Amino acid sequence: MGYLGEFEQLILFALLQLGEEAYGVSIREAIERRTGRLVSSGAIYTTLGRLEERGLVRSRVGEPVSGRPGRPRKYYALRPAGARALREAYETIQAMAGGLLPRLDELARAEAGEA
Amino acid sequence: MGGAGGPRPPKVLRWIASLLIRAPDAAFIMDDLGELYERDVAGGMPRWRARWRYGRNLLGSAWSVWGAGVRGRGRGGVSWLDFKLGFRMLVKYPGLTLIGGLAMAFAIWVGVGTFEFISQVVYPTLPLEEGDRIVAIELWNVEESRQEPRTLHDFIAWREELRTVEVLGASRTVERNLITGDGVGMPVDVAEMTASAFRLAGVAPLLGRTLQRADEAPGAPGVVVLGYDLWQRRFGADPGVVGSTVRLGREQATVVGVMPEGFAFPVSHRIWAPLRLDPLEYERGQGPALRVFGRLAAGVSLEEAQAELTALGRRAAAAYPQTHEHLRPRVMPYAKSVIDPSGWESLGILSINGFIIALLVLVCGNVALLLFARAAARESEIAVRSALGASRGRIIGQLFAEALVLSAVAAAVGLAGASLGLRWGMGILESTVLDGYALPFWFHETLSPASVVYTLALTLLAAAVAGVLPALKVTGRELAGRLRQASAGGGGVRFGGVWTAVIVAQVAFTIFCPLISLVLQREMSEIRNRELGFPVEEFLSVVLRTDEDQAMGLADDSARAERQARARATFLELKRRLAAEPRVSGVTFAATPPGASHPWRRIEVDDGGAVPPWEPPGYRVRVASVAVDYFDVLGAAITAGRGFEPADVEAGRAVVVNSFFVDSILGGHNPIGRRVRYLPDRSEARSPAAEPEPWYEIVGVVDDLRLDDGASSLIAGLFHPVAPAAAGANGMVVHVRGDPASFAPRLRRIAADVDPTLRLERLVPMEQFRREYLRFYGFWSWLIGGLTLIALVLSWAGIYAVLSFNVARRTREIGVRVALGGNARRIILAVFRRPILQVGLGVIVGALLIVLLHIITSDPGREPMAWQIAQIAVYAAVMMGVCMLACIVPAWRALHVEPTVALRAE
């Protein structure tokens, strides 16, 4: 299945959330809304291209949008392999993080106190 | 993509995006960028902020796409990681970065500056509207192979008949005194120009108007248009200058306009007056020298224009065979009529680029040595990478990328300084070679796109030499086989014949190059300290010109004599007025001012007592034409015979020589009564019909008076007596009490009072000549000195790195030999043999180059060879010192390796 980087995971979660409406702009906004992180359009497309090469997502070019001139949008969706990989990655993190959050908070508070 | 009629990002940003974002999904990325911008604006965001967000997204996208691209190609030659590694290497090895980077930056700086200047000479572009269609028309005398500039009648015919060239205009340059309100004259080159020339240039005036056709009519009121610099300097940028009156020589003129900064058509002019020439006043083929220009008509090529002109030329030749039989009109791009290097000259000028590239390769060869040492030190890393499957191309790509990072940083530094260097170089050129004249208006100090592209090429070349060469060597033989050695801690890379050659060349260069710099420095200090035979710091020098010099078409002898008599009367009146000034202690005349370099000729001496000429035929001497009271005013002592008397001018047979002449040509024998005469030039000598020159009698000897600027070894001098204003004797020399520069304004005022048309050119303290030469020498000395210093540091660092690395490689071998009971002395000899041979060979080659230089440039009177031998010895000692230092430290360490350690490792 292979390793999924953090940014790849963010994109795959965005696809999951957006469903049929996942394209460059909506993905960017979803990430920005949920994480507060501003990412470049180029980074989204190059990552999606890489994930598509690995068989984790698929793309389709949609119908022209009414009232919008020019090119139709390119929509992306999770493939089953992508869903499995994302689940695995998430579970890995959860497994590692299980029960550790209170300790993490404690440490963070201690650091803040020192500061 | 924005909605129909919705807000769209600025075109320039979209254009940059299309340029930078190159990927299969580029179109979708661009659409997204546009849509986000549209949403930002529609959401009430200020446009500047939306644009800023668009730009940030654009750059981030370009970065991601580019990074993905190089990652994708990473399996092949160069990967993104390599560049990152390259940056890391810059930081990790600061010494190498500094030395190698500075050296490369210097070479690129010199290279790109030279390229830009040469391009402007060989491929000029006029910064005017349709500048590439502006042409010049000349008449070429095919029989005498020279240009015929007296084209007044032809210009009028061309203006009426020529169809392929439009807006035909003409100009001529006259020197005039510009006299403004304060009454003090300032010599200026006036472009007398047809009004059409302003239309041709297509530049609007800054103030007022340009010249008009009506201004050219005979009897029209005098008008003048000022250049920007002149307006700034002479008129204090007065906005009300239009309408004021000035005098150009004897004529009054009203200022009608001021041109904008940079306008200097036709060549480097800064003041323009109408061209008023009546063809009825001149015979065909007579009249002033004119420059004729125009613009190719729409759709007409240069060849078509030439065809029409050739037809007109044939007709003129048939109609006026006496004057036009051998004249052929020719049309050419305008700039070529001012500076036209012939095919071979162009090639010669362009080949300078070749030398510069050779310099770059040499410098990068040095950097390559350093990088090689660095690459060899990372041999284990390279071998492991190779073992893990990296191809040779991949490793070479990595080392190339590292060198490219270094050369790119160097190129950025070089490019940033190139424009500054260009300005500096052009300033030096104008003040020295061009004698204060400005370069034609199309020379500029900014870099052209071609130069930037050339810099990129130089950058790649530098990276290729400095990166690929060491990489090829390091990855060359049995890379995989070296893995074992590397893992065992030993070294497999050897510095072979190529590197020996590089070291030898470097050592030779480091011996030879400082010598040139030192010679220049020594020359400068000699010029500074040399006595010219008179107190040069107390004199002012000025060249006097009257408008009579410019009169054309009055070529007969009586007119010339009359003109000369008028000029002489003016000169003598000025001398009388100056002599009455309390600060002036003497005034005299000479064709060339003392303290400047005088022309030289070959002479022969009547038989008896002369030393044999060392460069036959005859002897080379400098020749001066001076007024009778010249020696008195300069305070130069007559040590034998007598000085000049007024009768000598008329008779024209008496000459005075300087003491250098007596010593170097007559071997110190009594010169009085001896005779000398000029030998024909070498080119004339072939003609047996040439009449021998008359004999002149030496009547006196002047003590130690030099006829050069102090920089030349040719100091034997011969003086002829002349009357002021005759035989070019229009240089005036004024002995001033106190600071001569402070007397210059007073002198100008008196001259304007004596004759307003009298032009004072190059009114400078005589010390100035020496200063200008020093500046010229200083420029070269600085350039060569800088180059030398960089070469020296680089070479020492390179030689040290390579030699010490080489010795360090043999640590184990030395340790084993010691462990086996080897003699330490013999081991040291074995270690030192090769480096010493390399450096020694370099010293010999460098010494041979110096000897060669000495043979080529040797002159009697120059310092003996011993001086150079001493220098070679000093440099050889320094180089050997570097060599020893490089060997001693690693050798010492190797000799003290524990034998058990060395044996166990083996």
Note down, in words, how this protein is organized.
The complex is a heterodimer of chains A (115) and B (906). Chain A is mainly alpha-helical and 115 residues long. Chain A is 61% helix and 9% strand. Chain A has 5 helices and 2 strands; from the N terminus they run αααββαα. Chain A has helices at 6-18, 24-35, 41-53, 80-97, 101-114; strands spanning 57-61, 74-78. In chain A, strands 1-2 form a two-stranded antiparallel sheet. In chain A, helix 1 packs across helix 2 (24-35). The longest helix of chain A is centred in the C-terminal third of the chain and has 18 residues, at 80-97. The termini of chain A are far apart. The model of chain A has no long low-confidence stretch (mean pLDDT 87). Chain B is of the alpha+beta class and 906 residues long. Chain B is 52% helix and 15% strand. The longest helix of chain B has 43 residues, at 767-809. Chain B starts with 10 loop residues before the first helix and ends with a helix. The A-B interface holds A 23-25, 28, 39-43, 45-46, 48-50, 67-71, 73-74 and B 1, 3-4, 21, 23-25, 27-29, 31-33, 35-36, 39, 56-57, 59-65, 67-68.
Radius of gyration of chain A: 18 Å
Give the tally of β-strands of chain B: 22
Q: Give a short account of the largest sheet of chain B.
A: 6 strands, mixed, barrel
The poorly predicted ranges of chain A are none
Which whole number gives the mean pLDDT of chain A? 87
Mass-distribution shape of chain A: elongated
The H/E string of chain A reads: HHHEEHH
Report mean pLDDT of chain B, rounded to a whole number: 80
Question: What is the oligomeric state here?
Answer: heterodimer
Secondary-structure-derived class of chain B: alpha+beta
Using only C-alpha atoms, the radius of gyration of chain B works out to: 36 Å
Helix count from the secondary structure assignment of chain A: 5
The residue fraction in helices of chain A comes out at: 55-70%
What is the SS-derived class of chain A?
mainly alpha
Strand content of chain B: 15-25%
C-alpha end-to-end distance of chain B:
70 Å
Whole-Å distance between the termini of chain A?
Answer: 42 Å
| Helical residues, percent of chain B | 40-55%
- Strand sequence of the main sheet of chain A, in spatial order? 1-2
